[in-house]
Amino acid sequence: MTETKKKELENSLKKGFEEGAKLTIDGRNVRLIGNWPKDCFLNPSVFEDVTPDMEIGKEEIFGSVTCVIKARTFDEAVEMIHKNPYSNAASIFTSSGKWAREFQYWFECGNIGINIGIVAPMAFFPFSGMKNSFFGVLHGQGQEAIRFFTESIVIQRWF
Question: Are residues 8 and 81 in the same domain?
């Protein structure tokens, strides 16, 4: 991470705190072993109590910052995701196969996780987003590749 990117992420943390989100894990206090430049590292940070109208709830933060937005109902969650201009990934945690299927069929996202916190395909799969989360002219998956075997990438974990 560059010093500029680290400052961007620290500004996101500051903005989230100012907007009223609860910073439950603060990654700014990095302890490095060895001769590494402190200006280029940031530990993971987690915000809770984020709402869709907060700047950190609207933007994609490409870095070690996670924003948790909770929905009271399934329909509220669908509405939140569909209103957001970005659509890289979404996850649901459930023991219900019904809600898992509903989630994967109703949510417009490039990557869908079921009982997976970070939806990241294996390195040999292409990566894709939807809406403003995609830049380029062709998806490695999606319509150009027969909707990558029909639609979005869905990764599931059941216990």
Answer: no
pLDDT tens for 6-31 read 888 889 999 999 999 999 999 888 88
Q: Which of 12, 42, 70 is the last residue of a domain?
A: 70
pTM of this prediction?
A: 0.68
Which residues are 155's β-sheet partners? 113
Residues 89-105: tens digit of each pLDDT: 788 888 999 999 898 88
- Clarify whether residues 114 and 143 are in a common domain: yes
